[in-house]
Specification:
homodimer; TIM Barrel; lyase (chains A, B)
Chain lengths: ~300, ~300
């Protein structure tokens, strides 16, 4: 399951709650496009801002609307006992896998991060993807820590941040991690603008923000790279540079939020306060980039 | 209320829940010592790890056990609507003030941080202390942002991180902020090892971790500084250096957790997973420091 394109859609949310209709339609759109898996309630899906009840409900909608495509559900929370409850809810909803970032308020020691994964993986009945996202968690995984966690039962994948620009350095980065983890654990790249290089460097999966809203575009890059066409994969990715530049400037979440509402896939606003959408100027830049790239549906 | 010594105790918590008896006893101890206010559910009080229901219950226990000493209740959460619910609960429990750190998962823009305070302060009936804690929130307040927020209705204080070591630089830091905020808004220092210098430099309050467990010690420093005895205040603080060194090395939370259980004020463990107490060696260092300083009750 943790291979190929894993698409991470928004969870359209405003102060009244989750827009269940729009949410289900996003999952149906991804399933129809043929993505390999769908990541519900990832960072793009705003898991950190929703209650346990909202997350359990969203997981159920996601699995139903995905129509057989495997759904990976984010179970991150600040407290271990809450993570375990969320894992139970995700499995009850029919998740094929779970995704866990070590959220922090107090900084965690390496042993505390390991302990979290140890306590959570023990009772799982579906595989877990370790979510390494220093930008939101402020946890800086060493490869040695990844190696320790990857030996735990039920660990199936590691979602790493972007790989280096240089292809050789990217290969070394992926190979270095691969040497420390079991063969059964896959490596998936995130940081969309580095994904083609990550796949070319040997990553098994792309955990993709853009794939959650523009699945065909992300599938084209993924299929090229995974079938050995390294050059075309990079070319396809580089064509998307206007969008990547906006991702780097404003964060992928706010750009995808503006794009999804521009396309009519969600209402506006679609992010929970205190998060606010882009201002008018930045929104125009997003629309211009989408027009340039023909990403208008 | 936001003046003098504000003492921040632990909320003794394990996997079974909050130890309400120990929690009430901590508040009674602080009230008996004569602290000026008590901060319930601050960072030391583990607010970020507790449910809304647990926090509402803890706030009620706190106000009752504080026996008339003003209680400031932490209302931080990742989502604005949840912060507003927590503010309502705190006021219902009888809080005299509330404390709000801008917790983050996605990084917030300055306008988003301002918007959070704008949305929360609008409906308050008690004053709010702005909690500037980059170590846990990863929000870096500029003085200009503090100035904007301090103009909002119901803002009564700003809890700043530690001040510079140099007394003149500390004065400039406090004066610089003071120039941008209304006269009605006080400034309180945190970062316990800088508190004497902060009070000497003009801070109105010390938001104190050590004061939550060793109130008489913290009161001695505060009373010296606030009555114009700058030298003795610094001397008293410097005597505590064995403890400050441990705070800097392990974080104040874990050190106070070990100290409180060593004194029998709480059981063990007293922190919620994934947070774990100090290891055996570090614990021995804490006990040795307490013995050296005569902090054994």
């Amino acid at each position: 399951m943790f291979r190929g394109l894993s698409a991470f859609p928004l969870t359209p949310t405003d102060e009244q709650g989750i827009d269940a209709t729009a949410y289900a339609a996003l999952f149906a759109r991804l399933a129809a496009a043929g993505v390999d898996s769908i990541g519900a309630l990832g960072s793009t899906g705003g898991y950190a801002y929703l209650t346990r009840e909202q997350r359990a409900h969203a997981a159920k909608i996601a699995v139903e609307a995905a129509d057989g495509v495997p759904v990976i559900v984010g179970i991150g929370a600040l407290r271990t006992s809450h993570v375990r409850e969320l894992a139970e809810d995700a499995q009850q909803a029919g998740a094929s896998g779970v995704l866990l970032a070590p959220m922090t308020y107090q900084a965690l020691t390496e042993d505390e991060v390991f302990g979290l994964y140890e306590d959570v993986t023990r009772d799982l009945s579906v595989p877990l993807c370790v979510y390494d996202n220093p930008g939101t968690t402020h946890v800086h995984f060493t490869d040695e820590l990844h190696g320790r966690i990857a030996q735990l039962p039920n660990v199936g994948s590691i979602k790493i941040p972007g790989v280096p620009d240089d292809p050789r350095e990217a290969e070394l980065r992926v190979a270095g991690l691969r040497a420390l983890i079991p063969d059964t654990v896959t490596i998936g790249v995130s940081g969309d603008w580095t994904a083609a290089r990550g796949l070319n460097a040997g990553c098994d999966a792309w955990y993709s923000v853009i794939g959650g809203t523009f699945p065909l575009t992300a599938l084209a890059v993924t299929r090229a790279a995974r079938s050995g066409h390294a050059g075309p994969a990079v070319d396809l990715s580089e064509q998307l540079e206007p969008l990547w530049a906006l991702f780097r400037r404003h964060g992928s979440l706010r750009v995808i939020s503006a794009a999804a509402s521009h396309l009519g896939l969600t209402g506006e606003p679609n992010l929970p306060l205190p998060l606010r959408g882009l201002d008018g100027t930045a929104r125009q830049e997003v629309v211009a980039a989408l027009d340039t790239l023909g990403l208008t549906s």
